[in-house]
Amino acid sequence: MKVINLALQGGGSHGAFTWGVIDRLLEEKGVAIEGIVGTSAGAMNAAVTACGLAAGGNKGARDLLDTFWKRISDASKSGPLQQSVMDKWFGTKGSMEYSPAYLFFDALSRMASPYQLNPMNTNPLKDVLASTIDFDFLHKETKVKLYICASNVLNGRIRVFDHSDISVEAVLASACLPFMFQAVEVDGQHYWDGGYMGNPPLYPLIYNCASRDVLIVQINPINIPEVPTTAQAILDRINTLSFNSSLMREMRAINFVTGLIDSGFDDGGRLKRLFVHTVDAEDVMAGMGVSSKLNADWEFLNWLKDLGRQRAETFLSDNWDKIGKESSTDIAKKFL
């Protein structure tokens, strides 16, 4: 049995890629998941997976993920953010950059805050999460160690929730984009998207899990093919740089510790070697604009899911023998 931990990045509807990765992993009888840490959409996938595993094992988790993403898509149908005909003809996959509603929303969000535009603080994700995840059950029953993170607005610190204190508000906090939603209050503190401080943070898995294998499901591309020259492309790149920065820093630290261990210094056994694995679709995601992260069309979500399943299949077939023995990702080459 291969025991792994999952680290799930956030990225809006691109989280459906992660849905596909998890779906394929749960299909593999020789894989067991010890811990999951997630941010934003990754936090939603993590919480849904943990709840499904506790209630119905691997099949229960796969079924609940299907239900969750279908509810996300159904809830989006009544919203204004939809692809236009021009997007489908001329845009990149999933793009809404020709959509009048998206262009209007994008411009408006730069002039007014969600406190002005959404004074009632309506968030359709809240109902979807509450109807999908039994948080009371999750507090008592869990088959995996679950962690999600959010960014404290006032002090800039990361807050990591575990299965004992995860709530619908905590998951919403982890996914709270400040230009779309008001800061989410949890225990008297206010939070924005966890991606600003950890996308995702790896240290909860390092400190609390026995397995040394961490599989990072990466949504935000590290590399892009060309220098952005349009205003929208520049903003897209700023977005991915911002949400990758914390992971890049953490990977530098892991690479440093690995070097110490390789040199023979393990601080009396306190330093832990980590086996790092990644599943991504950089070649595809690098060409997709940020507007596609708000596209919850069912066909698009299923396309992302299928892409995730394909990349997970490739990972398993290429790296099965490395799990539990060594990293399949060259940390220095990919992250440094």
Short description:
The chain is built from 13 helices and 8 strands.
Write the layout of secondary structure elements.
Layout (H helix, E strand, L loop, with lengths): L1 E7 L6 H13 L3 E9 L1 H36 L8 H6 L9 H9 L5 H4 L6 H9 L2 H6 L4 E8 L5 E5 L5 H7 L9 E3 L2 E4 L10 H6 L4 E5 L13 H32 L12 E5 L2 H4 L12 H22 L11 H5 L1
Parallel strand pairs: 1-2, 1-7, 2-3, 7-8
Antiparallel strand pairs: 3-4, 3-6, 5-6
Helix pairs in contact: 1-2, 1-12, 2-6, 6-8
Please describe what this structure looks like:
- There is one protein chain.
- With 336 residues, this protein is α/β, with parallel strands linked by helices.
- The chain has helices at 15-27, 41-76, 85-90, 100-108, 114-117, 124-132, 135-140, 168-174, 203-208, 231-262, 282-285, 298-319, 331-335; strands at residues 2-8, 31-39, 145-152, 158-162, 184-186, 189-192, 213-217, 275-279.
- Strands 1, 2, 3, 4, 5, 6, 7 and 8 form an 8-stranded mixed beta sheet that branches.
- Helix 2 (41-76) crosses helix 6.
- The chain is globular and about 60 Å long.
- The chain starts with a strand and ends with a helix.
The whole-angstrom Rg is: 19 Å
Task: Note the gap between the termini.
Answer: 32 Å
How many β-strand runs?
8
Mean pLDDT: 90
Strand content: 5-15%
User: Helical content, roughly?
Assistant: 40-55%
Main sheet characteristics: 8 strands, mixed
